[in-house]
Prior knowledge:
Helices cover 70% and strands 0% of the residues. The radius of gyration is 23 Å and the shape is flat. The N and C termini lie far apart (63 Å). The chain is mainly alpha-helical.
Amino acid sequence: MVFLILALWMHDLKFEELTKYRNWKLQREAVLNSPACNKAKAVFGESGQLIDTLTMVPGYSFMNGESWGISVIRAMNELRSDNPDAPDVQARASKIWDEYDMGAIDQSAIQHFYEATQNAVKMACLPGRDLSFGALLSLLKSVLIQSWSAYELLTEQILTECKVSHANLFSPQIVNKRHRVRSESTLPVSYREVFGGDSAIDSAVWNPGVKGHALLRHLLVHSHGKVDDTHLKQRRLDPIVNEWDAYALVGDEIIIDGELVRRLVDRTNRAGYTLIGAVSDWIDARTP
């Protein structure tokens, strides 16, 4: 029943925008003076890579299906067999497929992946493909939720690790207090208290881009992506969010597509690395 409703509201998923990956290698591999920041950054960077890998599943699966079909046909031709399930055909097809799959990732392979992604989405959006469309839409929502969870974990880990590795920079009250970050209200308050209202840290940890991601994640988890009164009130509080849902009314369902997901995920990734750098600078300035 859920997927039937989704089919009635089938829209352009813009999946090609989701696969426009940003390279965060420099940020991931940067070595900072603070062991706490390096540890938190390593976990955050790995989470980002896993999330991007998740977005590759439709295209890679479709591409592998195409490659396997070609491999079986080649094997049948080589062995002059008309049985695709014959053991010798399957064995030869596996070797052919391995040669392709283990080959260098050149521009041709990349182009094949993008074309396969487009084909997978086209197939999923054909009339009557309710389950397929619903699965891709659920994937987009999962990416948004997982990306926000990675950011929440980062903000929590930074506080925990800093209190352990740099306890001398904080008062005993700060070190011993449990600072919560798992809500839109506690996250900025906790960071202001721990780092004394440092402007660079405050602007990195909580800004319109980060808040927009948090609000949309909240809608997806708690109200099936539909705008409610709480969302409208939160949106109007500083920092003001007035972009992707600027004209949304109570009861409206936010349209999720690859363009929106990529934009929010990239902003949150950028905010995460900016936050790590700001905290590292704060520590360096106070470390003899």
